[in-house]
TrEMBL record:
Residue stretches of biased makeup (Polar residues): 1-16
Biased composition (Basic and acidic residues): 229-246
Pfam families: Cyto_heme_lyase (PF01265)
Provenance organism: Tetraparma gracilis
Record's keyword terms, sorted: Heme, Iron, Lyase, Membrane, Metal-binding, Mitochondrion, Mitochondrion inner membrane
Broad class of enzyme this protein falls into: lyase
The protein's name: Holocytochrome c-type synthase
Reactions catalysed, as given in the entry: holo-[cytochrome c] = apo-[cytochrome c] + heme b
Length: 352
């Protein structure tokens, strides 16, 4: 994640999330230093931006990020174990990485023929060695529900506890991009393990009976990922068409629950009472500049009641004396949230 990534509340967020970022133990290639993990707030903003929230609740995000960080550290440990055998004597650095969740690796495909569940994710990591040489690693991630722990605290594993998340199995190996990598996989690592010179643990090709029984669920997960990708493409196409031919959203598109309706009614009552002066200023403004100032004042007043989290974030940024991009991001969050509340208010009125 870049250091300037958005760490402010998103427009549809209802409770604060931690903004602390953890520094990994994974050295950066070229740039120096170490990779820095996203905060729970950044992660939430990211899945919001990509429309990937699904059934993820805000209170789950901290655990998701903790598991994400733990698995990256475990993956890097295994990469280093390979590098100690292939290119000993130098510190490897992670140059770049890419997620390829729907690209089934040859080894992943072979495993499915033997009854192994499909992996739920795949990464390709490119390592830079001290010599400047680069090497690509393929990582497949599998889930074994029978190894999941229900112990207290297991949902928030420590970043450096390699044995904490036993339900996620990681298969790390160098890509067969050169004869040297073929030799490393077929000869160097097996000999190092046999001689006790490496603690690398190989994930077996054949599944356990428990894993074999989960292959159907893994395939459904895989099909869900493919459907999600198709939906992303269709949504992008629809967005382009909407730009060319915008149409209003029906007021009754999504019925509001009784509790949502009551909350909207109470908020509207507060806005009508406490933002009356700002509304009168908007009604009476003359020049474009006056109307812009009056509209912003009304938006901020409304946000104080409809979007307290986003309103507080903007105030905090302004009080810190921040300028430029961070203020713009915070202001966009306020404006988007007020707009979303306005759409809900229209739907509420239509349901009366």
């Amino acid at each position: 994640m870049p250091s300037h990534a958005n760490n402010l509340p998103s427009s549809n967020q209802s409770k604060p999330l931690p903004t602390e970022r953890k520094t990994s133990t994974i050295p950066k290639g070229n740039a120096g230093g170490s990779w820095v993990y996203p905060s729970p707030q950044m992660f939430w903003n990211s899945i919001n931006r990509k429309k990937k929230v699904g059934d993820t609740a805000e209170e789950d995000v901290e655990a998701v990020v903790a598991i994400h960080n733990n698995m990256n550290e475990k993956t890097w440990l295994k990469v280093r174990q390979w590098e100690e055998v292939i290119a000993p004597g130098g510190e490897p650095r992670l140059l770049k990485f890419i997620g390829r969740p729907t690209d089934l690796s040859p080894k992943g495909w072979l495993r499915t023929l033997l009854g192994f569940p499909l992996p739920f994710d795949r990464h390709d990591w490119t390592v830079q060695r001290a010599s400047g040489e680069t090497a690509r690693y393929i990582i497949d991630y599998y889930h074994d529900e029978t190894r999941a722990s229900a112990a207290a605290g297991s949902g928030l594993p420590a970043m450096d506890d390699a044995g904490a998340v036993r339900s996620i199995l990681v298969d790390v190996r160098p890509a067969l991009d050169s004869p040297a990598m073929l030799k490393a996989r077929a000869l160097d690592m097996p000999l190092a393990r046999r001689a006790g010179r490496s603690g690398f643990e190989q994930l077996p090709l054949a599944p356990t009976p428990e894993l074999r029984a989960q292959s159907g669920e893994a395939r459904r997960t895989w099909e869900g990922i493919l459907r999600s990708q198709r939906a992303d493409r269709e949504a992008a196409k629809a967005k382009e068409e909407e730009r060319a031919d915008p149409r209003p959203t029906p007021a009754n598109a999504a019925p509001l629950s009784p509790s949502e309706a009551a909350s909207i009614d109470a908020t509207l009552d507060r806005i009508r009472s406490d933002c009356a002066a700002q509304q009168r200023a908007v009604d009476a403004c003359g020049t474009d500049a006056e109307c812009a100032r009056a509209s912003l004042a009304l938006t901020m007043c409304m946000a104080g009641f409809a979007c307290p989290l986003q309103h507080g974030a903007l105030k905090g940024v302004l009080e810190e004396g921040e300028e430029g991009g961070k203020v713009d991001v915070a202001l966009d969050g306020v404006v988007d949230c007020v707009q979303m509340f306005g759409e809900k208010a229209v739907r509420r009125e239509a349901q009366r």
